[in-house]
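Re-running the complex after MR caught last week's input typo. The corrected sequence lines follow. Everything else is unchanged.
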Amino acid sequence: MTSSGIDRLISLLSKLPGLGPRSARRAALYLIKRRESLLAPLAGAMNQALEDIVTCSACGNIDVIDPCAVCADPKRDASLICVVEGVADLWALERLNAFKGRYHVLGGVLSALDGVGPEDLNISGLAARASQDQVKEVILATNATVDGQTTAHYIADRLSKTGVQVTGLAHGAPMGGELDYLDEGTLLVALKGRGPVG
Amino acid sequence: MDWTDEGIVLSARSHGETSAIACLLTRDHGAHAGLVRGGLGKRHRGVLEPGNLLKATWRARLSEHLGAYALEVIRAGAAPFLDDPLRLAAISAACAVCEASLPERQPHSAVFEGLSVFLETLESESWPSVYVKWEMGLLKELGFGLDLSRCAATGANGQLAYVSPKSGRAVSLSAGEPYKKSLLPLPAFLLNAGGEGAPRDVVNGLNLTGYFLDRHVFGHHGPGIPPARLRLADRFSRK
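Corrected-run output:
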C-alpha cells in the first residue's frame, strides 16, 4: 500500500462517528498490523454490506432481504405498527424484545430548519399500510421533541380518515432518574401525566 | 468579550458529533447564534427545544466570532404542550417566523417581549389572538406595520372592517363594500389592545398577517413563508 493509500484509509476512517484524525490514524495502524485477522475480513464484510443491504420496501428498515426479517416474520402481530424516526430507533425498540408488532421507518421528522416537509418522509407509505384491514393500531414512537411531536400530530391527522387507532409513547421521568437532576421540561411533562399509585 | 441575557430558543442544529449551534432571540442582542458545546448530549437535549426561555451567557474572543453559549433553563416553553397539536404548531410557527425574518445581532426587544408574552399566555384560551397580535407587532418592528387607525378612503375611524392588500391601511365597512372581494377581512379584536377573537376572527387574523409577512418579509426570500407557519394556518382553519 502506498502512503497515499494509507492517507486515504485514515481520511475515510476519520469520517466515521467518534473518530477524529488522531484516532483514525490509530485505527488504521491497528488494522494494518492485523491484515489477515481483521483488515481482510472487515473489507470483505464492508463489500458484502455494500452489495447486499437493501431498504425494505414495506417499512423502510434496512436488511439483506426485501421485505426485511421483521416484515417477513409471520409470528409478528400485523395489526400493530410502530412508527419510528430512524433505523436506530427501530433497533432500540428491538433490543427491548417487548414489542411484537411491525415497524415503519419515517426517515426523519418534519423540520423547518432543515427544510424537511411531509413529502420528504415515508408518510404516504404509512397511510397506505394503515389502510389495510388487518392494521388496528399505529403507535407513534417519535422523539419527545418539538419536531418529533409536530410530526406525530401531522401523522395522526393524516391517519384520522383510516379509522385506525393512533397512540403515542408516554413521556415523563426516566428509570433511575433523580428529580433534582431532571430538566424542567421532563419534570413538567411527568407531573402533567401523573397517575394513581397503588 | 461576553454578555448575559435572557433568550428564547428559535432553533438548534447539530455541529459535529456532540455540539450544536443554537439560535436564540435575546432581549438585548436580538437573534444571536452561538456554539453550545455538548449541545447534542443528554444534558442539553431538553434545553435546546424551540420556545424554551433561557438564561444565556455568550463568550467569544472577538465580537464578530460565533462564540459559545452557556445556557440554563428559566422556563420550558414547549414541554407542557407536546400533546397539544395546535399550541405546538404555534410555538414552531413563531420560532420559525422569528428565525427567518429577523436579522442577526440586531436588538428587537419588542419582538422578544411579545414572543415571551405569547409563550406565557399559551396556558390560557386567548393565545391565538395573542399570536396574531404578536405577528402584527413583528410586521411593525420590521418596518411594515399596518395602519388600522382610520379608513384609508374616508378618514373615519368607525366600523373598520377591511385592510387594503396594497397599502396595508384599514378600510371601513361602507367604503370597502364595493371592493370587498379584493380586500382582506379585518378582525375586530385587532382594533383594541385587550381584544380576543373568535376562531373565525383568528383565521382572518392569520390570513391578514400571513399575507403581509409573505409579501414584505418572506416574498424576497428563496424558501418563502416557513412551512411551520403554513401548517399553523392550515391546522387552525380546519379547527
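None of the earlier attempt is carried over here. The two ends of chain B are 49 Å apart (CA to CA). Chain B has a mean pLDDT of 92.
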